[in-house]
Amino acid sequence: MAGIVGVLAFDKVWNVSKFLYYALIGLQHRGYSSSGVVLLNGEFYKHREDKSPEDMRLNGEGWAGIGYTGKERAYPLVYEDVAVVVDGILKNPEALRRLPKDPEKTLSELEGAFSLVALTREGQMIAYRDESGLKPLTLGGFGFDMAIVASENVAINVIGGEARREISPGEMIIVDKYYIDSKRLKEPRRNYCAIDYVYQSRIDGKINERDIYALRVRIGEQLAKERPIQGDTVIGVPDTALPFAVGYSRATGIPIDLGFTRTGSPIRTMLAQDSFLKVVGVQLKLNVVKSAVFGKRVILIDDSMVTGLTLKNTVMSLRRAGAKEVHVLIGSPKLVSHCPYGVDVPKSSDLIAANLSDEEIAKVIGANSIYWLSLKGLYEVIGINTICVGCMVGRYPKVM
């Protein structure tokens, strides 16, 4: 998983480096262990570091640029006449060398599951989302001064820009100082990633014409239909699962409480490369509000469960704070298989839901009970029956 962004000013007096920097900070929920930018100011200036965007010491200047935040150390790619950032899996990246000469032919021949933003030495910005639509991409601008392309609309919003529309699967966008052109290269298939809806995207974002906050509230309401529980308080694990808790509380009438307070910068344990962070990440980022859970039957809602380590620590924290019972609800179906398209879902042998029964999992994590959103419920909430749920069922749409 990765976040990508491109900014092109229509006048060379601009320096877009700060726009790229803050846009990447707004995208680091999609990946943060490696980051980099390429700026254009007559020549390409590349800056890349093995650290999160907010820790970059960016000092270059340029009137156009592209940026990357994720786990792949190869990006941004810089060739003689073009620089490129990619979110997803690209099987033949060397073909990108030909992008400035024939964008349409080059993009049509690329294989993989990806979105990309490219910047040519001549000052064109090229954006493309492959026909599966697995990786999101949004087009926006900063008044009449700049064009912006980013993985999510939130990256455009945080730098004061306006998100205009999502780039359609199979669509190519070309921007230079004088015009913006669009062309559909392939027919869209709408194999949108289910993880983007339930976990990956920010709650203030919009993905594939779905408002993420409203959708996650509906998932909470769906959980209430599927699994009503007698409890005293509903608590969502910040930040992703908070809307699930709102929906569950609304549907059941059980009060919602703020059960955790943040103790530092957000740490996405699913994305963490450090095994220590995976084990104790919840203590590093959250602290229990004792008065919200002491002596209560807690309904704890989280977005997903991978290995179970994070939830085990979360449940233990609630128990130590005096929770009488802890019932766990997961706002997505079980994760049972790896993802071949770039989402950080490990192999089946590492996934707790693929190897243990519900009763065994509840015992391992210390919960009184556990329940996952049904696959049928997920389809009903999202309203698109072609989404990719490969990590939940072990069958994947053929996209490359």
Automatic annotation (TrEMBL):
GO terms for molecular function: amidophosphoribosyltransferase activity; iron-sulfur cluster binding; metal ion binding. GO terms for biological process: 'de novo' IMP biosynthetic process; purine nucleobase biosynthetic process. It catalyses: 5-phospho-beta-D-ribosylamine + L-glutamate + diphosphate = 5-phospho-alpha-D-ribose 1-diphosphate + L-glutamine + H2O. Residues 2-178 form the Glutamine amidotransferase type-2 domain. Its EC number is 2.4.2.14. PROSITE patterns: GATASE_TYPE_2 (PS51278). The keyword Transferase applies. It comes from the Archaea. This is Amidophosphoribosyltransferase. It comes from Candidatus Aramenus sulfurataquae.
